[in-house]
Design brief:
- By secondary structure, this protein is mostly helical.
- Helix content is about 80%, strand content about 0%.
- It has one domain: Growth Hormone, Chain: A, CATH 1.20.1250.
- The chain has 19 helices and no strands.
- This is Major facilitator superfamily MFS_1.
- Keywords: Membrane, Transmembrane, Transmembrane helix.
Length: about 425
């Protein structure tokens, strides 16, 4: 009898740097580049289309809301598709759509065209993170899932930073073309990645997959789903309101110089790179998603209060605060990971894809509340009220949420 040669156990780096993890990470980099490129080029692109200064804020909010509406619809579509057809179908389809929409954004000549293409881009952008995180959590051992999703999130944040530098070096139309080209190049890498075994096993069984009704027909599942959404709200309050409209906040504060939106975005996401790494490592150290997320939400609340209430006058101090806000936002990866871990394989992609997009889409009611309150109490206090509401809801939801750090993901949801 011939002895089989022993295979050396894989190192942590070898387990993490699998092709599915790398491709999911690079895909999210391009996804975040496009998502935040609009925040960076909002003012110059609108001015180039003939928008008057008094219309920059309302037209910018309209375009942002169109993008977020697309992400809401896309989140449902890609989430269901990811559970019915597989995670890879979403990774291919979503990047193709947002890459082509990116190229189209560089060709626009009117505000209406801009709005339509931001909506289409939103639909495409909706699928990338959820499908990527779902695939990564299913191909990696449970003890290192947090490291894998941290890599994905960190690469995504680097994409947002890259958007600032590309927009600084190139005219805004060319910045959109570059994003579209990067996405199309990434499709070549995706040809060689494989589907997760967990999903392939479930696919062979007669189990309902990607059924949205299952999320709402069971009270326990519905509450878990709502908890996931609420936990992410503070992140997009900061990104969608405080950072995106930082020039308007700087003006309301009476800063010594105008705030450049692109610089505020770049600095906040520089902070988030370190926050994503720190939260991922903290989660692994504590062996708890909940405790790590709770700490970052409380930290975020401190910096939100400083941003809106401290008597800032120097623009450099404002930019430094944007870095701290970004760092406190660094639980995005953990938030999406816990959403994926809370649900069975037959609903995992649906949840992991729809939840972050519903959080992003929550910018629509949040900006509406902000604009409504602005006419009564002013820019700063209106934002303060909205921010405290999102933080309170997130902490309540997190308190009742199940811990998922050591949870086995090889199970399905039953009717």
């Amino acid at each position: 009898m011939v002895e089989q040669p022993k295979t050396e156990p894989k190192t942590l780096a070898q387990q993490l740097l699998q092709l599915p993890v790398l491709v999911a990470a690079l895909g999210y980099l391009v996804d975040m580049y496009d998502l935040f490129l609009f925040s960076v080029v909002r003012v110059p692109s609108l001015k180039a289309l003939g928008t008057t200064p008094d219309r920059l804020l309302p037209d910018g909010i309209m375009l942002l809301n169109m993008q977020m509406a697309g992400m809401l619809i896309g989140g449902i579509f890609w989430g269901v598709l990811g559970d019915k057809r597989g995670r890879l179908s979403v990774l291919f389809g979503s990047i193709l759509i947002y890459s082509l929409a990116n190229i189209g954004n560089g060709l626009i000549t009117s505000l209406n065209q801009y709005a339509i293409l931001r909506f289409i881009a939103g639909v495409g952008l909706a699928g990338e993170l959820g499908a990527g995180v779902t695939l990564v959590t299913e191909v990696l051992p449970k003890k290192i899932r947090g490291y894998g999703t941290t890599i994905v999130a960190t690469m995504g944040v680097l994409g947002a930073i890259m958007a600032y530098f590309v927009a600084d070096l190139f005219e805004w139309r060319n910045a959109y073309f570059i994003g579209g080209g990067l996405g199309l190049l990434l499709l070549v890498l995706r040809v060689n990645i494989f589907e997760s075994r967990i999903f392939e096993t479930v696919k062979e069984r007669q189990v309902k997959r990607g059924d949205l009704i299952m999320l709402f027909s069971d009270r326990t599942r519905l509450l878990k789903y709502l908890q996931c959404i609420l936990v992410g709200l503070p992140i997009w309050f900061v990104v969608g309101i405080l950072i995106t409209f930082s020039p308007e906040f700087g003006q309301a504060m009476g800063l010594s110089a105008p705030v450049v939106a692109g610089k505020a975005v770049m600095l906040s996401f520089t902070g988030q790179v370190f926050g994503d790494v720190a939260s991922g490592l903290l989660s692994q150290r504590l062996q708890s998603r909940k405790r790590a997320i709770g700490g970052f939400i409380l930290l975020s609340s401190v910096f939100v209060l400083v941003y809106l209430l401290a008597p800032l006058r120097d623009v450099d101090s404002f930019y430094l605060l944007c870095v701290f806000l970004g760092f406190a936002n660094g639980y995005w990866a953990l938030f999406v990971t816990i959403a994926a871990e809370l649900f069975g394989t037959n609903l995992r992609a649906t949840v992991a894809t729809t939840v972050p997009n519903f959080v992003r889409g929550a910018v629509i009611p949040l900006t509406s509340l902000f604009i409504l309150g602005k006419s009564y109490v002013g820019t700063l206090y209106s934002a303060l009220g909205v921010g405290l509401l999102t933080i309170a809801l997130a902490l309540i939801a997190l308190y009742y949420m199940e811990e998922t750090f050591s949870k086995d993901l090889n199970y399905v949801e039953t009717e």
